[in-house]
Each structure stands twice: as C-alpha cells, then as structure tokens.
Amino acid sequence: MTLSLDGPLVLAGAGKMGGAMLAGWLKRGLDPKLVMVQDPGPPPEVAALLERHGIPTHLELPDLPRPPAVIVAAVKPQLMDQVFPRLAARSGPGTLVLSIAAGKTLASFERHLAADRAVVRAMPNTPAAIGRGITVCVANAHVSPSGRALATALLEAVGEVGWVEDEALMDAVTAVSGSGPAYVFLLAEALTVAGVRQGLDPELSARLARATVAGAGELLRQSAESAAQLRTNVTSPGGTTAAALAVLMREGAGMPELLDEAVAAATKRGRELAG
C-alpha cells in the first residue's frame, strides 16, 4: 500500500525508533519532499537514510506554507515537554499528532494544543527497528476514523498495530509488549548461563540459546496454534522437556507466577511515571 499524505509530515526525533519508522514510510512510497525532520544529531544509519533521500534535518523547523498533516513526536519522554510546545504551535485543525513517547499521556499533549486537535498515543516496542514490532494505540475524542486509519498506516510500517479504547490500559500494554523484549533477552541470557553450568562451551551455549529463542519466536509467529499448544507439542510425557517444565511451572514459584509479578510491577511503575 502506498503511503500518501495531503500535507507535510513533521518527525521530531530521528533516533532508532523514529528512523525505523521513517525508513518504513519511505519504503511504502511516502514522498521525501513531504518529510521534515527535527533532530540535532540522528545516528549514522539514520543520517545516511536522510542524505540518500535528500531530507534535511532542522534544529528549529522553518516556516511551513500550511500546517502539517501529521506531527510525529518521537523524542525521549524527558525531552517532550521542552520540544512539543513549539511543535504544537505548528499544528492546524487537520493535523494528527502521533506520539510514541513512553508514559506521556494524551492530556500531556492536549494541554499544549487547541481544544479540537486529534492526538494518538502509541506504544511500539524495539523489534520495530527491524519491522517486526507491535504497537498499541489509544486516541483522544477528536481522532476521526480517517485519523485512526492514517495512524495505523504509519505504524504498520514497523509491524503490527492494535488499539485500545481505555488509556489506562496503556500501562499494561507497556508492561507486556514495551518491556517484553527485555524479558525474552533475559531468557536467552539465563539459558546461556545454564548451558555453561552443564558443561557447554560459552560460545556454543550462547549460540544455542539465541537460535532457540529466535526460532521458537518465529515458529510462534507463523503457527496458527496457541503458545500453550506449541509447548505441549514439544513436551513428551516423562521426557526431558517435561522434567524442565516441572521446575519452570512449579506451583507458586514458577515462571508463570514470576512473569505475572513482573508485568504487575512494570504496570505499577508505568502508572507512577505517568503521574
């Protein structure tokens, strides 16, 4: 699907996530002439992308002939209050504001905008950097069906997209998918160490853990079966996997309980940071 806009797209923050989104938009046919990037120092790979497509970067945006069709706020959350007010001043009645800043609420953007401005808050995760992320969005009351469709199209450039209607659920989304890659990486780390303790060479153990986690994830992505069924498929009664799962699924102290506690802690911390 070709990505087309009826006005400029302003990208504030062209780091790894903003740069990955921009690369996805350009692959989908977005006209580089419509893109304006505000970033004092994008990483080398993003700078090369910008140069290749003739997209300049700005410390301060120049005057625009008309309000942007989209403002994508992709700067670090701690910088948003410093950067966004100047972006908000560029918005018009038809501008969609799309934020990917973790923890920043719809209200934190609305207070800088006219009362009728459309705002979408989105929570992507780091696999978006390779086009395999998942992003969950919530919209304020001024986002039209066409605005939702535009936000979906922009975010699908880096993976899957879902929506919730209750903004309070974004903390749980962050705890599951936003922080979730770190849980998977920890699994690979722990599996590597466990293999070494059983006598494997560290390099081989790391290779086994990485390939196993990555391969299992790809199988899960492509399979129509549930995660529970895929686990059952690997588990022969009385076999080695069953022996390991008896430990990992130990009642009251196994992986399910630990993950439940971890996600609850991350959700709670998200609420505290949103303040």
Description:
The structure is a single chain. The chain is of the alpha/beta class and 275 residues long. It folds into two domains: 9-168, NAD(P)-binding Rossmann-like Domain (Rossmann fold), CATH 3.40.50; 178-274, ProC C-terminal domain-like fold (Orthogonal Bundle). The protein is 49% helix and 13% strand. The chain contains eleven helices and eight strands. It has helices at 16-27, 44-52, 77-88, 106-110, 145-155, 170-178, 180-197, 202-222, 227-234, 240-248, 255-274; strands at residues 9-12, 35-38, 57-58, 70-73, 96-99, 118-123, 133-139, 159-163. Strand 5, helix 4 (106-110) and strand 6 (118-123) form a beta-alpha-beta unit. The chain is elongated, with a radius of gyration of 22 Å. The chain starts with 8 loop residues before the first strand and ends with a helix. The mean pLDDT is 94.
Notable traits:
2 domains, 8 strands, Rossmann fold, 275 residues, ProC C-terminal domain-like fold, 8-stranded mixed sheet, alpha/beta
Which CATH class of the largest domain? Answer: Alpha Beta
If classified by CATH, what would the architecture of the largest domain be?
3-Layer(aba) Sandwich
Strand order of the largest sheet: 3-2-1-4-5-6-7-8
Relative helix content: 40-55%
Uncertain runs are none
Report the C-alpha radius of gyration, rounded: 22 Å
Helix and strand sequence: EHEHEEHEHEEHEHHHHHH
User: What general form does the structure show?
Assistant: elongated
Global mean pLDDT: 94
Sheet of most strands? 8 strands, mixed
Quote the distance from N terminus to C terminus: 39 Å
Domain count: the total is 2
Based on DSSP secondary structure assignment, what is the total number of beta strands? 8
Report the β-strand fraction as a percent range.
5-15%
Q: Structural class of the secondary structure composition?
A: alpha/beta
Classify the fold: give the CATH topology of the largest domain: Rossmann fold
Number of helices: 11
CATH superfamily of the largest domain: NAD(P)-binding Rossmann-like Domain
